[in-house]
Amino acid sequence: MDLTVPEYAYMFGFLQADGHLYQGTGQKGRLTVELNIRDIDLLYRFKYLTPHNSSVTERTRSTNFAENSHSAVWTLCSLEARTKLNELGLPYGRKSRTIAPPHDTFSRRDYLRGLIDADGSIGYAGQRLPFVSLTTSSTAIADFLCLYAREIAGAERVINRNTRDEVYNITYDKEAAQALAADLYYPGCLALGRKQVKADAVASWIRPFDMRIVHSRRVWTAQEDHVLLQATDVVAVAEKLGRTENSCRLRLWRLRSSRTLMPSEK
Asked: What's the Cα-to-Cα distance from 120 to each of 63, 96, 170, rounded to whole Å?
């Protein structure tokens, strides 16, 4: 599994999000991925990409969401394959908070598309606005998406876990969503067919002429906080930082009243 190869990078991202690596006694164990039957083609693609014996089976069972849920399961038992996946960063057992992007070189956009296909969404939300989103418990994955989206779409995000599920729900909409969708779901890439169709549809969105453009909020850096705290003239420091006077006064109040974290010492 060479993660510089787009198909393997995608596959690994998908497995990190939606795969389950079980460790049995001795050398026993297995990797499984279970998807709705409509996505069975992707499991056969994974089977084809894997140079070890594996199987794709179907089953019907009762779940919390449906009386008769028809799904497909890909199962891989090879110790060599499981060891490789584990070394790359797919943990055994519960993994939602501990997964992280690979340490070595990898195809970033294909890896991220795998994560979004497994644990994200793409399409149109209320008022027919395009969006791309990802739900994750991993801080490392959340940071990776935010960094990538800033590079590709110029969109800044300040992320926090939600209070109900303790997960990150990260969403990009309008032009930022279009830029991400176009970059991630390029022609001929390995992807869930239904999400590829939605990505293509996102590209057709045109901003209504009367819709105001709201620029992404510029995030304060630790260096800017240091400059602001050391300044004696707010008007002068605002000009120096390229920010408004009101923005500087509000940031200074938040820092001094402990409503935001003080910057770490250099």
From this structure: 21, 14, 9
